[in-house]
Structure formats: C-alpha cells, structure tokens
Amino acid sequence: MSTVWLRVFLDVARHGSFTVAARTLGWTQSAVSRQISALEAALGGAPLFDRLPRGVRLTEAGRVLVPHAEAVVERLRGAGRELAALREAAGGRLRVGSFASADTALVPRAIAAFRARHPAVLLTRRQDLTPALLDLLSAGRLDLAVVSTTGRPRLDGHCLHHLLDESLYVAVPAGHPLAGEPSVRLPQLADADWISGSPRPEGTLLDAALRHGFRPRVAHVVAEWTAKQGFVAAGLGVALIPALAAESVRPDIALLPVLDEEAPARAVYAATVRGRSLTPAARAFLAALRESAAGIPR
Questions:
Q1: If we measure between CA atoms, which residue out of 69, 131, 129 comes closest to residue 98?
Q2: For residue range 85-95, what is the model confidence (pLDDT) as tens digits?
Q3: Sign (positive/negative) of CA torsion 36, 37, 39, 40?
Q4: How far apart are CA 167 and CA 179, in angstroms?
C-alpha cells in the first residue's frame, strides 16, 4: 500500500472535495481520483467516499480508515524529524562550560564519547565557577553548562538536567592517624588545618563544616586540585575532595568518605536556558554526560 495514497486520502477527507485536494497538492483532479481508486482497490474495493453532486463524503469504511492513515503519516513525519535532527548534529558548533572538578573525569569522558559520534561538530569548552557559567548561559555565550550546588547559586532561572548527587571525601596525608579509617565525620577534623580554594568556607565545599557547628581553619588557599593534593601529601593540612575529582588522587594521600546524614552530597546538573529548545548537538552531548555520570562514584 502506497503511503502517497494515504496522504491523498487524508487531503480529500479534510477538504471534502477531489477538486480542492487536487489544488492543494498541485495535481489534476483525475490524478487524485486515480490515487483514491487505487487505495480502494488495495483495501478490497469498498468505496471510501460517497461521490456527491458537490464534493465527496466519507463512507463508513473511510471513517474507519482515517485514524489509521493519520497514525501512519504522523509516524513517517516523526521519522523525518528525527533523521533531520541527526543530520543537524553531524555539523555546527557546541559551546560547553563546566566547573573545575567536573573537568577531571565527567566532562572529558563525555567529550570523548561525543566527538567519536559527532566528529564534525566544533565543540568549544570553558571552565569557570558555577555563577559565572550561569551568567554566560543566560547571555547566550554557552549552549550548556555543567554546574553544581556548591555555594548555593541561584539555579531556578535555568532548565536543570540532573546528572548525579556527588559524595565528598576528606584527603589526609598517608601517615595521618585517621588514614586507615573506612569513613570520617567532619567534626573529627574540627582542629585540623584545611587547604581550600578560598580563605572563607562560605560558598565552598567547606560549607559542610559550618553545618556541623565548627568553622574550619583555612591554613593554605590553593585553587587547583592537583596542587591541593601536593599540600596534603606534604602534611600541611587536609582537604575536601568531591567524588568527581577522586579518580585523580595521588597515591601518597588517603581518601576518607565523609559521613553526613543531613546533607550527604552536592548535586551536579547540566544547565540550559529555560524556554530555549536544545539543539541536536546539545541533546547528544547531554546524553554523553549522562553516560559519563553513571561511572562516577556515588
């Protein structure tokens, strides 16, 4: 059965006229009539339309056929839309932003998978803090940003695609008294020297210490993750390490999972602009991020 017959049938049913359907399709009336006759023959010969002095009217058989013809035609249109989306994802550009620890494993793995599937897409990446990434997203300078709830940024103005709830670890020197413990509670380290990316705990991972009623003593301000590990390994303090960065930890320090029943994790999202449709490339990269997130320790 030709799908062209079904399209012509639906046009005639919609307009109630061979003549009007022919005009809409850019065909002759006789061509439309032949298509309908062929469809009727393929369905056993029962007429689909009553031919009236002015126009046509669906028969009972025609009324039964309408929803089936509509379903077939819509499925074909859907297939066309999906194939067009695949073609669009095969080229163009994608601008991605992410925060620092997301760039240790989550984002690089997603980029690798994305480039393997869509090598013609020009992907550019920018690293920054979550508030700055959200500003770039709102300004139209990013298509997608990987952000976290560290520092309690305002996320409500964006469309959030949940990737994972991230656990935290404390990094201690290999010879630290707690190094052999299976886990730790932050108050056990209330008197420790801390290594952090900011002199103030507010707006950082060390917010967790404030929730436990103590203000951590930041002895060294170190921004980069590998440098923080160097300070820990040298015995200059301890540091909080998110699960996203845990795989890159050097062997001369120990990671202790943090037990925190009140707030055990921070959330990580892929943020996009609310109300703005994702491009095919952005949808494909979001899928790659979700695959990568599935391999991150919880």
A1: 129
A2: 666 666 678 99
A3: positive
A4: 18
Q: Report how far residue 35's alpha carbon sits from residue 22's, in angstroms, rounded to the nearest whole number.
A: 11
Q: Say if residue 296 is exposed, middle or buried (CB neighbours under 10 Å; 0-12, 13-18, 19+).
A: buried
Sheet holding 168-173, edge to edge: 239-242, 168-173, 253-257
d(CA 162, CA 156) in angstroms, rounded, equals: 13
Q: What is the pLDDT of residues 274-293, one digit of tens each?
A: 888 888 889 999 999 999 99
User: Which secondary structure element, helix H or strand E, spans residue 148, and what is its range?
Assistant: strand 144-148
Which alpha helices (H) appear in the chain, and where do they start and end? 3-15, 18-25, 29-42, 60-89, 106-117, 130-138, 207-211, 225-233, 280-293
- pLDDT tens-place string over residues 112-161: 999 999 898 899 999 998 999 999 999 999 999 999 988 788 888 899 99
Q: How many CB atoms lie within 10 A of CB 254?
A: 20
Strands 239-242, 49-51: pairing is unpaired
As a whole number of Å, the end-to-end CA separation of the chain is 53
What are 184-241's pLDDT values in tens digits? 999 999 999 999 989 999 888 888 888 888 999 999 999 888 899 999 999 999 999 8
CA distance 213 to 10: 70
Cα 263 to Cα 260: distance, rounded to the nearest angstrom: 6
Q: How many residues does the chain have?
A: 298
Which amino acid belongs to residue 280? P
With 0.90 as the threshold, say if the pTM is over it.
no
Joined together, the tokens standing for residue 198 give: 């900011």
* DSSP one-letter code for 184: B
Percentage of the chain beyond pLDDT 70 is 95
pLDDT at residue 82, as a whole number: 72
- Structural element, H or E, at residue 122: strand 122-127
